[in-house]
């Protein structure tokens, strides 16, 4: 195809303004990515962050854009001047962006009041997401088809459409980096939204100005209506099928490779920003290259097929790099003096693996436009059809890989499927070239050379797919530190679920570790056993008679198992986001967790030692938002706050949810890691917790006197602790299982457990004065913690906390003997100072 329509008289004047239109698309793409990041964070706070919830969000977001693209050329109200309509769409996106930000609290309250379990709950998540995302995404999807009408009558129109698409992606790269590394790190989601709205306003103003300078004659509007009917044919159908398959592999690969790269780089918000920006940059570069190729290609169908063939090799390259090479590069992130140096290395590794395939996917879009185009065809409908096919394939790819392919087949099978689908897309476009055309006089005779070449390409694809390496168990276990291990422990289990990848390892001495996404989450090592049981025993011993317990995060099940030892406990609810953990992983720790979830596959809820145990597969925040049940104890042991998304379990609003779901006199405990963290992150965690529980307590879990981690404890009621009453309960005959559980980790009495006391809220007032409070609207903690995940400041932070601690005479009450014993135990801890009378009063 050499042209779409004859060149109109004013084409040179329009060509002069095409670079400005490219700038419009760049600004629009930048705003769109900022919105996407902000909206996904906002909505995950409400509908949860499980794979199903994320699938609902992604499907709604991309579905809205695809629908907007299809509807735009068919809506009469959008048939005016293309640039003026484009400006109105951008202004509408900005207004709706503000509406989503301002209306989210009210809509979330409605959601919490209506949501239920099962398919009805999932349907409501979809309705809620659609109400928030469909209006703005419909407008976003309409922008490219509308702007396409401006270039429809130029000989190089299709190539320019490819450049516009590339410019939009280039802006998206800028938006991704701006939001991930600056706006959300320094400010919050409101400020990020305001920046995106400002970009929309600037784009709208520029579009309106261009429309004013370049008239849109009524005759041309009528010509556009007359030629708005699409044409059909084999090339048209095959091009749409090929770009749909390309979208399927693109989003499927993004799901798979994001999982692998988050293991290699560490799953921080910064790593995800790097991964997404590299992916988008490749799409933008490829789109520009594809647009240049489409301008001169005589056989665009062949060019698109060759691009898909290149994709086969690029996917195989990425699979080998991500599973057989990059994990073993001799890098130790702890040696970096600055996290920004680590980000540079992360960027280079992501580029090395992902960029070739991303370039091929980017080039596919303008080549598909050229292959699908027909003389006399409306450019708006041309773009709408190709864009919608690509988006539909992308939605199916993202959902199928995240919800089906990865949980059932793992990353190896997923990448083999990617290669197979890319090979199928190659066949779709190259198979017609294996037969001679009727115009050449041999309508039914195959071209032997072309056929052999295609068969050779398929054989190559089969060979490359067969050679895809399996996911290394060591990578699942130790992630970014894999290369620092000279000898790995025995890997007992590796599993890939919808939400995370997990592993269980065992050292020669018998110690077992449970790993999630490249880090140790729980273990039978003394320090970890101690922590896991402290999280359960501290609130259960302080409470006179706990009956109902919520455990957020199953882990190895050890914390949940501690509550089975208490005679008064009747019901234990375990909230876990990844089904593999209670069903498989916790079984490896049955002796340590009192076999708390052994019967979960047979019956849920089930009974253990006469107590009801129920496992809920949901993220803890969403469960608390939607349940009406209240508890005597809520204990939370989430993964490190530097892991993207986990900071939502450390926000002030989350702790308020916990407080609101406590019965009078109930307790909440929260884990605070000192290792793989920094001073600012720990201060933020403490200040946020104390904002909800001002009289909250901190208990330390050290290793040979050196800092390791902490337990924060808050109460829905007075903070006083009667030492005598606790010691009396501890010595009761029916508390024998409690004593055995504590003695197994080194606590010989209740006073031993209380001697881990490290301070009360008012001790830290000065130390926390300028600390950041982690709120839903900023999620500041994940940005602070993400800068410190490779640091080792645990002992320095621990010593600072001990230096601030005083003996709490107003907190602990009891006999003189028990208080003296407790005071002596606390005084033996490094950094403790005995205060003068009443020094510890708030």
Description:
- The chain folds into four domains: 1-215, Growth Hormone, Chain: A (Up-down Bundle), CATH 1.20.1250; 230-437 and 448-471, Up-down Bundle (Growth Hormone, Chain: A); 473-519, no CATH class; 524-827, Vaccinia Virus protein VP39 (Rossmann fold), CATH 3.40.50.
- It is elongated, with a radius of gyration of 30 Å.
- It starts with 10 loop residues before the first helix and ends in a 15-residue tail after the last helix.
- Helix 1 packs antiparallel against helix 6 (189-213) and helix 10 runs antiparallel to helix 11.
- A nine-stranded mixed sheet has the order 7-8-6-5-9-10-12-11-14, with helices on both faces.
- Mean pLDDT is 88; it is low at 1-12, 226-235 and 831-842.
- With 842 residues, the chain is of the alpha/beta class.
- The longest helix is centred in the middle third of the chain and has 52 residues, at 379-430.
- Strand 11 and strand 12 form a beta hairpin.
- 58% of the residues lie in helices and 10% in strands.
Topology of helices and strands:
Blueprint: H1 11-47, H2 51-71, H3 82-114, H4 118-148, H5 157-186, H6 189-213, H7 218-226, H8 234-265, H9 269-296, H10 300-325, H11 339-372, H12 379-430, H13 448-466, H14 473-478, E1 490-496, E2 501-506, E3 512-516, E4 519-523, H15 526-542, E5 548-552, H16 558-562, E6 571-576, H17 580-583, E7 606-608, E8 611-617, H18 620-626, E9 631-636, H19 652-660, E10 662-673, H20 679-692, E11 697-703, E12 706-715, E13 721-722, H21 723-730, H22 736-743, H23 750-754, E14 757-760, H24 780-786, H25 794-804, E15 812-813, H26 816-827
Parallel strand pairs: 5-6, 5-9, 6-8, 9-10, 13-15
Antiparallel strand pairs: 1-2, 2-3, 3-4, 7-8, 10-12, 11-12, 11-14
């Amino acid at each position: 195809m050499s042209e779409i329509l004859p060149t109109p008289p004013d084409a040179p004047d329009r060509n002069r303004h095409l670079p400005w239109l490219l700038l419009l698309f760049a600004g629009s793409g930048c705003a769109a990515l900022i919105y996407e990041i902000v909206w996904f964070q906002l909505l995950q706070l409400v509908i949860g962050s499980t794979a199903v919830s994320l699938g609902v969000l992604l499907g709604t977001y991309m579905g809205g854009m695809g629908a907007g693209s299809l509807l735009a050329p068919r809506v009469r109200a959008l048939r005016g001047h293309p640039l003026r309509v484009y400006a109105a769409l951008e202004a509408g996106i900005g207004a709706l962006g503000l509406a989503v930000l301002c209306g989210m609290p009210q809509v979330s309250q409605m959601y919490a009041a209506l949501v239920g379990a099962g398919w009805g709950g999932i349907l409501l998540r979809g309705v809620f997401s659609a109400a928030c995302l469909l209006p703005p995404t419909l407008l976003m999807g309409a922008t490219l088809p509308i702007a396409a009408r401006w270039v429809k009558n130029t000989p190089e129109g299709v190539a320019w459409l490819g450049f516009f698409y590339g410019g939009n992606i280039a802006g998206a790269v800028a938006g991704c980096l701006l939001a991930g590394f600056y706006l959300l790190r320094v400010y919050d989601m409101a400020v990020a939204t305001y920046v995106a709205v400002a970009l929309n306003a600037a784009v709208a103003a520029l579009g309106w100005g261009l429309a004013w300078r370049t008239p849109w004659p009524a005759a041309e509007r009528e010509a556009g209506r007359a030629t708005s009917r699409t044409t059909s044919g084999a090339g048209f159908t095959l091009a749409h099928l090929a770009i749909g398959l390309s979208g399927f592999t693109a989003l499927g690969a993004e799901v798979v490779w994001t999982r692998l790269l988050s293991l290699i780089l560490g799953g921080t918000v910064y790593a995800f920003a790097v991964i997404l920006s590299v992916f988008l940059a490749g799409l933008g570069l490829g789109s520009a290259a594809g647009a240049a190729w489409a301008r001169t290609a005589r056989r665009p169908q062949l060019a698109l097929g060759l691009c898909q063939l290149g994709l086969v090799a690029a996917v195989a390259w990425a699979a080998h790099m991500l599973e057989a090479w990059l994990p073993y590069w001799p890098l130790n992130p702890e040696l970096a003096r600055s996290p920004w140096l680590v980000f540079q290395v992360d960027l280079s590794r992501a580029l090395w693996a992902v960029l070739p395939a991303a370039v091929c996917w980017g080039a596919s879009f303008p080549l598909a436009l050229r292959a699908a185009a027909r003389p006399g065809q409306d450019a708006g409908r041309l773009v709408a059809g190709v864009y919608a096919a690509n988006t539909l394939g992308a939605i199916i790819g993202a959902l199928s890989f995240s919800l089906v392919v990865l949980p059932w087949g793992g990353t190896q099978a997923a990448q083999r499927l990617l290669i197979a689908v890319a090979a199928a897309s190659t066949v779709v476009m190259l198979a017609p070239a294996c037969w001679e055309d009727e115009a050449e006089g041999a309508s039914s005779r195959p071209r032997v050379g072309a056929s052999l070449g295609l068969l050779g390409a398929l054989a190559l694809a089969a060979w490359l797919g067969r050679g895809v390496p399996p996911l290394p168990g060591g990578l699942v276990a130790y992630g970014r530190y894999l290369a620092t291990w000279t000898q790995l422990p025995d890997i007992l289990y590796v599993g890939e679920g919808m939400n995370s990848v997990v592993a269980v390892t065992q050292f020669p001495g018998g110690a077992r570790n449970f790993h999630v996404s490249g880090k140790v989450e729980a273990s039978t090592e003394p320090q970890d056993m101690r922590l896991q049981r402290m999280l359960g025993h501290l609130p259960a011993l302080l409470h006179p008679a706990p009956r109902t317990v919520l455990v957020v995060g199953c882990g190895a099940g050890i914390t949940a198992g501690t509550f089975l030892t208490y005679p008064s406990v009747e019901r234990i609810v375990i909230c876990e986001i990844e089904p593999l953990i209670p069903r498989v992983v916790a079984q490896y720790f049955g002796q340590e967790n009192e076999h708390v979830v052994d019967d979960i596959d047979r019956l849920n809820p089930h009974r253990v030692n006469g107590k009801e145990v129920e496992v809920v597969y949901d993220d803890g925040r969403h469960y608390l938002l939607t349940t009406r049940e209240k508890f005597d104890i809520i204990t939370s042991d989430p993964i490190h706050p530097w892991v993207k998304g986990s900071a939502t379990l450390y926000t002030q609003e989350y702790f308020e949810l916990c407080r609101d779901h406590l019965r009078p006199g109930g307790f909440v405990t929260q884990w605070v890691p000192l290792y793989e963290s920094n001073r600012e992150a720990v201060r933020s965690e403490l200040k946020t917790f104390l904002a909800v529980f001002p009289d909250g307590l901190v208990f330390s879990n050290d290793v040979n006197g050196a800092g390791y981690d902490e337990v924060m404890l808050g109460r829905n009621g007075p903070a006083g602790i009667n030492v005598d009453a606790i010691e009396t309960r501890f010595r009761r005959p029916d508390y024998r299982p409690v004593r055995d559980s504590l003695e197994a980790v080194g606590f010989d009495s209740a006073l031993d457990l209380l001697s881990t006391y490290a301070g009360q809220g008012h001790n830290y007032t000065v130390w926390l004065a300028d600390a950041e409070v982690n709120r839903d609207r900023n999620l500041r903690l994940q940005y602070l913690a993400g800068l410190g995940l490779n640091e080792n400041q645990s002992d320095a932070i621990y010593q600072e906390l001990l230096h601030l601690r005083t003996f709490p005479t107003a907190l602990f009450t009891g006999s003189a003997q028990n208080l003296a014993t407790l005071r002596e135990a606390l005084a033996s801890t490094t950094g403790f100072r005995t205060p003068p009378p009443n020094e510890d009063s708030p």
